[in-house]
Specification:
By secondary structure, this protein is an alpha+beta fold. The chain has helices spanning about 20-25, 35-40, 50-55, and strands at about 10-15, 15-20. It has a domain at about 10-40. It contains three helices and two strands. The longest helix is centred in the middle third of the chain and has 7 residues, at about 20-25. The radius of gyration is 12 Å and the shape is globular.
């Protein structure tokens, strides 16, 4: 679990860089409990990704 106190989180999921579930919870579009259903999708992995490295052009 992590806490984001300020700013925004970017998450690499496959070949997609998204705001992830944190923004959905902040906007009231999802509940904390709904994270349990997708927690395996947002596990931490440390690897090289061209999509991630190129996300800001």
């Amino acid at each position: 679990m992590f806490f984001l106190l300020d700013g925004a989180a970017e998450i690499l999921s496959g070949d997609d860089v998204t705001a992830g579930p944190v923004q959905c919870i902040a906007l009231g579009e999802a509940t904390l409990e709904s994270l349990l259903e997708v927690q395996e999708l947002y596990d931490n992995h440390f690897m090289k990704s061209e999509v991630w490295d190129g996300r800001r052009g």
